[in-house]
Amino acid sequence: MKAQPKVQPPGSHFIDGEYVEDTAGTLIESLYPATGEVIARVHAATPAIVERAIAAAKRAQPEWAAMSPTARGRILKRAADIMRARNRELSELETLDTGKPIQETIVADPTSGADSFEFFGGVIATGMNGSYIPLGGDWAYTKRVPLGVCVGIGAWNYPQQIACWKGAPALAAGNAMVFKPSENTPLGALKIAEILHEAGLPKGLYNVIQGDRDTGPLLVNHSDVAKVSLTGSVPTGRKVAAAAAGNLKHVTMELGGKSPLIVFEDADIDSAIGGAMLGNFYSTGQVCSNGTRVFVQRDIKQEFLSRLKERTEKISIGDPMDEATQMGPMVSFDQREKVLSYIDKGKTEGATLLTGGGIPNNVSGEGYYIQPTVFADVTDEMTIAREEIFGPVMCVLDFEHEDEVIARANATEFGLSAGVFTADITRAHRVVDQLEAGTLWINTYNLCPVEMPFGGSKQSGFGRENSLAALDHYSELKTVYVGMAPVEAPY
Ligand code: NAD
User: What's the CA gap between 323 and 149, in Å, rounded?
Assistant: First the structure.
């Protein structure tokens, strides 16, 4: 392994424009997943820190909301420029935080965060426009107004991206944010806060506090918080939505999935295999929208499986800081244990292990490495076909007919994403029309540019991130009726 840069932040939290420490909070050790070494130590926010962050946000927000959208947007676009200029440094930090290979983080993490600041910084000039409603002599107009203090709570798979995907639309719309990253990946969001302030963001508008499942509720239950946006698992989503309902906060829920990816016999098979591999092995399988149930039409099953096996066994696993590495470790020891236990279930429940299934022996040290794994002959009732594994485990299921596969694809509580590979354009649109998911792909998989809404249906959540749609979730409509004639009262 290459020598690692020092990444200990000057304080655990970033509040009101500066780093803040309170060592009374529970110690959180940040481990580099490739070696298990401690790379930073932070403390969970105490109730006093939570109060301080929310108070700073509440104080700063009205003045920010009163600025012109163009002026707000200019600061966000400057932040995007700084992120791009520091892409290498931020990508290395993201790799240390998550264990994802630098080959990925350099193209997918700070850059997608920068896209978000650039996009929302640009569209906000018109994105909050209202409407004029003629009513005969009278008329009405609508305006979009910010919500106030918004809370963002992140998962550990895309720490910088999540911090930006929540922060950019919230700030663009005129809100303030308090963001809590996952306890597994505390570092990236602090850098985003630093960069926003360097770009000219007034103090108090983007605060980061550390913490875990005990800290989150302090934010979610706070009466000065108007909105909570969570990226996390379905069980956490249920708890957070229930707590937010206490005083009717706005909520966005970006939760888990068990998404179907359907490959018809006429598909470009190499493309479909590439899509299935990206949709199962990118980020060591730790992607919410992954197409983890790969339905392959029976006629092409053997060809699909043999080429998939060959390509999967060529994936290079190792030092995430090495540009040639294609797959790094999992984020934590616990997450790897969880994935290994699912692999055991796959074996005992009768799926065919096509490749992988264990810990690779070509990587030394204490890293949380795992082999990219493919199970074939998976059936709908197997645990590995029903539950979100959140690791590099692809389940291949066979099917015969279109109607059959649509029904089976939809037979899940989740509804985050879905994909279809076919050369028949009519079928492609017919099938996606019937699939129950929030984000769908035809002849590709997992691409999420900022211009396009992203989010789930069913138990995978509600609300949308990215695109103009995200602004609706960080603002509300105010309607004004304008009476132009004397009021005629019957009494
Ligand atoms: P998690 O649900 O364990 O934790 C998510 C966040 O919620 C963490 O910051 C955690 O500290 C916090 N939290 C936990 N309990 C809480 C509570 N009661 N109140 C408030 N906050 C609480 O999820 P994870 O293990 O960090 O991430 C993996 C999950 O996230 C997977 O299910 C994955 O599918 C999902 N995910 C979804 C998306 C999406 O956009 N839909 C993106 C990435 C990850």
Answer: 40
